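Pasting as-is:
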Amino acid sequence: MTGFSRLRKLTDQGEMVVTIKSVNHRSLDVHVHMPADLDAYENAIRSVVKRQVHRGHVEVRISWNRASATTLLSLNKPLFESWLTAFRDAQKQYDLHASKPDLNTALRVPGMLSQADAEPDERLEALLIELASEALELFNASRAKEGASLTKVIEEANSRIQDHASVLAAMRTNALPILQVRLQERLANLLAGSNIDPQRLIQEAAILADRSDITEEIHRLQIHSGELKHLLKQGGELGKKLDFLMQEMGRETNTILSKTGGAADIGLRITDVGIAVKSEIERIREQSLNLE
């Protein structure tokens, strides 16, 4: 599910800005971007996100403008020496006439300067967790608003499926005589053969009767539709449950279509309604990918 929040706060540690946004994803995929001097707190931020979000590609960005510039910095000596060596090698190899290495240029190399005190600060970690939690509350509020709109779309599609299921149940009554004729024709073909095993004839009749009746499939389609209605009313984490229900409803609809494929005009009308059901199922499936 998509969502967005942005929180800016002035603290005694300086100005901090937390931005959270997400796009659809089948599972939870968290990406944290923040200054290198906050790297020690990344796992804490991830834990906060996982407690409050369960699905989506979530991107967390934290920027920090320190309250003062008095923090001691240390020179990355191995990196600086490597930079000097590379400078002198290039000067010699390409016959360059630069007199001396430029220190200002060297200090702008990423990683050349770092905090002298890199030990985790419990007070700073608590502040980051507090700000991230507040930003996540705003973030989830934006997602809840979108979720309400998506739920309404799903409810409307499910209501149409229930209507279609009622139409299929009525059509089934009209289709029964046609399906019985098909069964009689099939049995007549079997009886025309020689040395028909009576037991096989009974089994064949039972199989054909079962293959022609769509009562159970319609009933299960209605049950799944009722379960979907219940889930939407109940709320909570829905995405994966809806995906499973759509698979089951799709399976029942496919079986209905396969059983009534040769039932003359009534079969064609059942096919039209079945395709309409499949269209609504697909609409719900697409929307369920946006729900947590």
